[in-house]
Design brief:
Length: 163
Amino acid sequence: MTAEAPPVTRDSAVTLREVTEDTVRTICDLSKTLTETQRTHVADNAVSIAEAHFSKHAWFRAIYADETPVGFLMLYIGPDDEQPGEPTVWFLWRLMVAGPYQKMGFGRRALEQVFDTVREQGASEFITSCVPGEDGPERFYRRLGFTPNGKWYDEELGLVLKL
Ligand SMILES: CC(C)(COP(=O)(O)OP(=O)(O)OC[C@H]1O[C@@H](n2cnc3c(N)ncnc32)[C@H](O)[C@@H]1OP(=O)(O)O)[C@@H](O)C(=O)NCCC(=O)NCCS
C-alpha cells in the first residue's frame, strides 16, 4: 500500500523545480487539465519544453505545491528582438496552473519567486503578454500589478510590471 500524498491547500509551500526525466510526462499532462478556452491562451507544456530545447533564451520550471506538481512557467531572458544590441529583457513566455489548483494563490506565489530571481539578475521590469478580455488571464496579471506597456505581441496585449 502506498501512502497518499497530503492534500494541497492554499498554505502549501510553493516551489519552482527543474523538470526531469522522471517528471516530464506529468508536467506535460498538466495541460490536459485546462479548459478548452484556457488551452487557446497558452501553449501546451510539451510544446513549450520542445521550444525551450531549441532556444538559447528559455528558462523554465515546474511549479509545485508541497510535493504536488501544479503548474509550469517559462521565461524568455535575452535581447529584445525589436532592438538588437539593447539590454536583456525578462519576458514571461508561458504560465499555467492546472485546473484543479487554480485560484489558490499558486500562480501569484510562483511569479513572486520569479520576480525575486530576476531582480537578482538585474531586471528592473518584467514583461508579459496575454489574450485580452474577461475570459483570459488579463485580470490575474492586473491583480499582480501589471499594466499595459503600449505594445502588442501578435494578437496579445503587452503588459509590464516595474520590479
Ligand atoms: C492565469 C492563471 C495562471 C492564474 O493562476 P492562479 O493560480 O489561478 O491565480 P492565483 O490564484 O494566484 O490568483 C491571483 C489573483 O488573481 C486573481 N485571478 C486569478 N485568475 C483570475 C481570473 N481568471 N480572472 C480574474 N482574477 C483572477 C485571483 O482571484 C487572485 O486575486 P487576489 O489577489 O484578490 O487573491 C491560471 O488561471 C491559468 O493557468 N490559466 C490558463 C492558462 C493561461 O491563461 N495562462 C496565461 C497565459 S498568458
